[in-house]
Amino acid sequence: MDSYGWRFVLLLLAVVVTSATGRDLRTRFATQLNGDELREMVGSAAALRHEAFVPAKRHDNSDYNSNDYNNNYFNRDFKHFDNSLLIRDNGAALVALSLHNLLVPRVSGSEANANVRNHIVTVFKALQWSVEIDAFDSETPHGKLPFANIVATKNSNAKHKLVLAAHYDSKFFDGKDFIGATDSAIPCAILIAIAHAINPLLEAQDLLARTTVQFIFFDGEEAFVNWSATDSLYGSRHLAEKWETLAADGSTIPSFSSSTKSSQSSNKKKSILKSIDAFILLDLLGDPTSTFINLNSKTTWIWERLVNIEQRLASLQLLSPQKSELVNVQNEVAYFVPGISTFGSQAIDDDHRPFRDRGVPIVHVIAVPFPKTWHTLNDDSDHVNPNTASDLARIFTVLVVEYLGLLV
């Protein structure tokens, strides 16, 4: 076959793939913000400022002084903060308040875990998102314990969803207080920052929009004793299994494994899992030395956009000065490494796995190698960088805005 023949075949295959999926993966992003729009988006969103991610207290409970991060405004007493006012008027203070609530031991089944959950629910309800609590009990090495995932959606009627997720529990350390700042207080705070930043844009969006964003906060990611198929990922395993046989209208449908081909073809309803365009999991974020590699070749189209957004923000000096210089002057990576890693998507087990195993497209954003503080008592507020958290919040916010085509 000559070159023209091969071109025709490739074009035909592209048409077939586009028809089968409904949308060409290469063009799923609805827009790309120009420089002025990026400046407006980042500059007007207080929730994305680095001050939002400055912890209120050091790990030893002492105050930061005026030299810390060149900002003494955040030597603050949260007892006098009005939650509803923060949510409405001050995104930076809201994220800081959320981080203050998250930077505590929050082992699944504990009172502190429930307090964190209640705070997250309060934030999203005040932003007028639909909030679902996926509560269940499960056997653990410590006996039967209660767990509860949080699912927050702005437009529940949308047929397609871009999901961003993190886990809000912390690892159990017998007789010791493990905070888990990177694992995963900072990722949860980033999700809250994104939600606050895009909320006005989502409210201006057409209610008939086919695609929206959904945030999932998983409970029970951590193992209580030793990581295994039964002692880990309690929340994500439960939700993925539940959504596999649940349609958007709440009715039950046969699972892929239990249904026959004939029943699948005759059943026009699709499971909730089928509504997920992509599932982006954030984990182990906040260490200033961390970078991220693409672990999933099937979602390279999203990873390439993350790389592109990082470069565009750096070129406009909209990332922290050190990271902007790294990209602009030294021509190095700030966070997202281009290309596809040979590390392998199966190598790191995390909350994405129950969804990946059921065919959901995955983007796994996790520090590789893991931070030096991973699963140590040093994973606390003293070992995360507010600039890093702010940079990542900005990158992911732009990703969501461009994917949904929100008007800035």
From TrEMBL:
Q: What InterPro entries is this protein classified in?
A: Peptidase_M28, QC/QCL
The EC number(s) attached to this protein equal: 3.4.-.-
Give start-end of the signal peptide.
1-22
Any GO BP: proteolysis
UniProt record similarity statement: Belongs to the peptidase M28 family.
Supply the PANTHER family for this chain: GLUTAMINYL-PEPTIDE CYCLOTRANSFERASE, GLUTAMINYL-PEPTIDE CYCLOTRANSFERASE-RELATED
This protein is called what? Peptide hydrolase
State the species of origin.
Answer: Physocladia obscura
